[in-house]
Amino acid sequence: MEQLEHANNKDLLSTLAGKSAADALLGQYGGLTNLAQASFDELQLVKGIGKSKAAAIKSAFLLAQRLSRESYAEAPLLDTPERVADFLREPNRVYTVETFQVAFLNTRRRLIGMHTVSQGTLDTILVHPREVFAPAISKRAAAVVLAHNHPSGDPAPSEADIKVTRDLIRVGQLLKIDVLDHVIFGRRTDERPRDFVSLRELGYFSGF
Q: What domain range is 172 assigned to?
């Protein structure tokens, strides 16, 4: 066990799939993020990976995601962009298409539920206000936080992202449900140390 704690990614993959298969996986996908995004069928195309090994690899990533959710002693506090990003980063790392999510919060800004509203093509999603606010009303949410990913890696908001956000802010005002922020996930680079942007921080919530 002590050896496993200090093992590198290749060694850990070797325990699941064997050394040669681990070499093939890292050669094919380069790193854990791309590997986590691979489908069950895609994994089986890699030399040395059959159904049982593909299932073991997918299960390991799913368990890691669930562990990150269980690590909170109480409902997560999502009152800053950084806390939203820390909570939603891992699920968003594995999405290969834009996926729009809504976090439902109580009056103390603690999470009371999550809902995936829609999944789009590689760079397009469609979001209707009723898909956001109907479940928010049923959960008696006082506020919501919007989030989605950009598979391109660049989290900068598009014109469509800005329009959707402003439309949802207006609907939320009518329903007395605060839209606190819209966090968009991408990837870190040397020039961009954060892997997300907050539309509130960028000023798109001003004037409401």
A: 74-198
